[in-house]
Write a structure and sequence with these properties.
The complex is a heterodimer. By secondary structure, chain A is an alpha/beta fold. Chain A is built from 13 helices and 16 strands. Chain B has one domain (5-219): MetI-like fold (Orthogonal Bundle), CATH 1.10.3720.10. Chain B is 78% helix and 0% strand. Chain B is built from ten helices and no strands. Classes of the chains: A alpha/beta, B mainly alpha. The structure holds adenosine-5'-diphosphate and magnesium ion (MG). Chain A: This is ABC-type quaternary amine transporter.
Chain lengths: 363, 224
C-alpha cells in the first residue's frame, strides 16, 4: 500500500507541481494517475521513491515513512519503469535486467539466471539476451524495462507512461500483457499515463489530476465514467463515456433469447435471418432468408457477422455491441468455448442498464 | 644522403623511440585522470562549467617552450628533468580533454541517468558504471587528438635536451646528417599514426554497443 498524506511539491522556481495530495494506492492493485501534461503525475510518482523530495507531507510505503529509508536502498525495493524505457545502452539486455539484483549484491551468475527468468516472464525470446537495447524495437525495449523493474521482485512497481512511445497495436498488446502479469504477480502498481482509455483499461482505481497538481477525482473507472465529479473530469473522460461505462456493468442476468441456426448444406429459412454454424455450433456468418439460389446453404451465401458476446466474461458493453453490429439486429451470444448459446438484443441491454441504475450500480 | 647512419645508430633510435612514447603517453594518462574529475565538476553547475572549460582551454595557448622554461622554476626541478616535459604535456592534455569529458558527460541522456537513479545506484557508482562508459566514445575522440598532439609536441623538448626522437632533429641539424633528421620525422609521424590507430581500436573494443545500429535492429525482427 502507498499512502500520500497531505503531500505538496513546490519547485524552487515557485511551481506547485503537486498540491496537498491525499491518496491511498491499494496493495496488490493497479492505481492509475491520469491527467493532462504538466499536471504533476511524474512528480507524484517520483516522490514515492525519493527521486523528488516532497516539500510538505508524508508518504508511507507499506506502512513505513519513506524518509526513514536510505534513498538508494529504498529504490532497490521499488520497481521503476521509466518513460522511453531508459535502458542502459552499453549493457546487453540480460545485464540490463540483472541491474537491481547486482546492486543488491547477488553474484553475477545468480543475477543473470534471475534475469533470464524475467525475460521469459515478459515474453522476450532467450536469443535477445546478448543484444543491446539499440537492436530492439520500442515494444521490446518496454518489455525489457518491465523485466528490469521486476528483477528483484519488489512489492511495489512505479510505471511512468511506459507504453506512450509505441504504436497503438503494440501498446494494446503490452497493456494486455501487463494485466496478465499483474494477475500472476499481484504487485502494488502506480501507473502514470495521459491517456484516459489506457487509465480506464488498466486501473483498478483511477486518480484524475488537473493542472496545478490537484487531485480532481479518485474512483474506480466505472464510477469515473458514470459519475464524473465535475466538468473537468467529464471533459477529460471524453466522448461516449455513457457507452464506455457499460463496459464496467456486469451482464449477469441478461436474458438470452432464441436464435435460428442452420448448417452449411441445410436448407435455409424462407424468410428472416438465421445464423450459420459449424458442426461444433461455432458461428460462421449470417444468412438472409430466401436469398440463396437453390435452397441449400453454401459458404457464398454468408453475410459476415458482428462482434460476439461472451456470456462467461462479457459486459453490457460487449452485449450491446454484439447486437448493434449484427446484420440481423440480434447479437450472437456464445459460451466460453465459443459455441452459440442464443441471442441478445439492444432492448434487453437497455432494460438491464435501467435495472442497474435503479439498484444503484450506476448513476 | 647517407642511409648508413641508420643501421649504425639503431640502438640509439630504438631507445629514443621508447623515450618518445613514454614522454608522449604518460601525460595522456595523467591528463585523462585529471580531466575526468574536472569534466565531472564542470557538469555539476553552470558556473563551474563557465569557469573550467574556458580556463583549461586557455592553457593550450601557452607557448610550449615558455612552459618548459618556466616549469623548472615553478616545480623546483632541474631544467633537464623529463618531469618538466611531462607536466607541460599533461597540462596540454587537460586543456584538450576537459571540454571533451564535460561534453561527453552532458550528452548522456537524462532518462538513462534517471533510470540508474531509480534502480538504486548511488551517485559515485552511477558515474563510474553508467555515465563514464557512455562518455567513452567522445572522450576517446578527444584522447586521440591529445595523443597525436603530444607525440609531435614531445620534439620541442629537444631544444632543452629532452624530447625523444626530437633529438634526432637537433643532432642531425648540428652535425649535418640529413638521414638522421628524416629518420626522426618519419618515426614521429609513424608513432603518431600508430598511437592514433591504437586508441581508435581500443575505443571500439571497449564500446561494442556503439557498433550495433539500425541494420542490426532489422535483423532482430520487428516483433514487439
Ligand atoms: N525540476 C523542476 N523544476 C521546476 N518545475 C518543474 C520541475 N519538474 C517539473 N516541473 C513542473 O511541475 C509541473 C508538473 O510536472 P510533471 O510532474 O512532470 O507533470 P506530468 O508528469 O503530469 O506531465 C509542470 O508544470 C512542470 O513544468
Ligand atoms: Mg510526466
Amino acid at each position: 500500500m502507498i499512502e500520500f498524506r497531505g503531500v505538496t511539491k513546490q519547485f524552487p522556481d515557485g511551481t506547485t507541481a503537486v498540491d496537498d495530495l491525499d491518496l491511498v494506492a491499494d496493495a496488490g492493485r493497479i492505481t492509475v494517475f491520469v491527467g493532462p501534461s504538466g499536471c504533476g503525475k511524474t512528480t507524484s510518482l517520483r516522490m514515492v521513491n525519493r527521486m523528488i523530495e516532497p516539500t510538505w507531507g508524508t508518504i508511507l510505503v507499506n506502512g513505513a515513512d519513506i524518509m526513514d529509508h536510505d534513498p538508494a536502498e529504498l529504490r532497490r525495493g521499488i520497481g521503476y519503469v521509466i518513460q522511453q524505457a531508459g535502458l542502459f545502452p552499453h549493457r546487453t539486455i540480460l545485464d540490463n535486467v540483472a541491474t537491481v539484483p547486482l546492486l543488491l549484491g547477488w553474484n553475477k551468475k545468480q543475477a543473470r539466471e534471475r534475469a533470464a527468468e524475467l525475460m521469459e516472464l515478459v515474453g522476450l525470446a532467450p536469443e535477445m539476451a546478448g543484444r543491446y537495447p539499440a537492436q530492439l524495437s520500442g515494444g521490446q525495449q518496454q518489455r525489457v524495462g518491465v523485466a528490469r523493474a521486476l528483477a528483484a521482485d519488489p512489492p511495489v512497481l512505479l510505471m511512468d507512461e511506459p507504453f506512450s512511445a509505441v504504436d497503438p497495436v503494440v501498446r494494446e498488446s503490452l497493456q494486455d500483457e501487463l494485466l496478465r502479469l499483474q494477475s500472476e504477480l499481484g504487485k502494488t502498481i502506480v501507473f502514470v499515463t495521459h491517456d484516459i482509455d489506457e487509465a480506464i483499461k488498466l486501473g483498478d482505481k483511477v486518480a484524475v489530476f488537473r493542472t496545478g497538481g490537484v487531485l480532481a477525482q479518485y474512483d474506480e473507472p466505472g464510477v469515473l465514467l458514470s459519475r464524473p465529479a465535475d466538468d473537468f473530469v467529464d471533459n477529460f473522460v471524453g466522448r461516449d463515456r455513457g457507452y464506455r461505462g457499460l463496459g464496467f456493468l456486469s451482464s449477469d442476468g441478461l436474458p438470452i433469447g432464441e436464435l435460428a441456426t442452420v448448417s452449411v448444406g441445410d436448407a435455409g429459412p424462407s424468410e428472416g435471418w438465421a445464423l450459420v454454424v459449424d458442426g461444433e455450433r461455432r458461428p460462421l456468418g449470417w444468412l438472409d432468408g430466401g436469398t440463396q439460389a437453390n435452397g441449400a446453404v453454401t459458404a457464398g451465401d454468408l453475410v459476415p457477422g458482428g462482434s460476439l458476446y461472451d456470456t462467461d466474461s462479457g459486459s453490457l458493453r460487449s452485449a450491446l455491441d454484439a447486437a448493434l453490429s449484427s446484420p440481423s439486429g440480434q447479437g450472437v451470444a456464445i459460451d466460453g468455448e465459443g459455441r452459440v448459446v442464443g441471442s441478445v438484443s439492444a432492448d434487453e441491454v437497455l432494460r438491464a442498464l435501467a435495472d442497474a441504475r435503479r439498484t444503484g450500480a450506476a448513476a | 644522403m647517407n642511409w648508413g647512419w641508420i643501421p649504425r645508430n639503431i640502438d640509439l633510435v630504438a631507445s629514443l623511440t621508447w623515450e618518445h612514447m613514454v614522454l608522449a603517453l604518460v601525460p595522456v594518462l595523467l591528463g585523462l585522470a585529471i580531466s575526468i574529475p574536472l569534466g565531472w565538476l564542470a557538469g555539476r553547475t553552470r558556473i563551474a562549467r563557465a569557469v573550467l572549460v574556458p580556463v583549461t582551454g586557455l592553457l593550450y595557448t601557452v607557448p610550449s617552450l615558455a612552459l618548459i622554461v618556466v616549469l623548472p622554476i615553478v616545480l623546483g626541478t632541474r631544467i633537464l628533468d623529463p618531469l618538466n616535459l611531462i607536466v607541460a604535456l599533461t597540462i596540454y592534455t587537460v586543456a584538450l580533454l576537459v571540454r571533451s569529458v564535460a561534453d561527453a558527460l552532458a550528452a548522456v541522456p537524462a532518462v538513462t541517468i534517471a533510470a540508474a537513479t531509480a534502480m538504486g545506484y548511488r551517485p559515485f557508482r552511477r558515474f563510474v558504471s553508467v555515465e563514464l562508459p557512455l562518455a567513452v566514445p567522445v572522450v576517446v575522440a578527444g584522447l586521440r587528438v591529445a595523443a597525436v598532439s603530444n607525440t609531435s609536441m614531445v620534439t620541442v623538448g629537444a631544444l632543452v635536451g629532452l624530447g625523444g626522437l626530437g633529438r634526432l632533429f637537433t643532432d642531425g641539424f648540428q652535425r649535418d646528417i640529413p638521414a638522421e633528421i628524416v629518420t626522426g620525422i618519419v618515426l614521429v609521424l609513424a608513432l603518431a599514426l600508430l598511437v592514433d590507430g591504437l586508441l581508435l581500436a581500443i575505443g571500439r573494443w571497449i564500446t561494442p554497443w556503439t557498433r550495433v545500429g539500425a541494420g542490426a535492429r532489422v535483423r532482430a525482427g520487428a516483433a514487439a
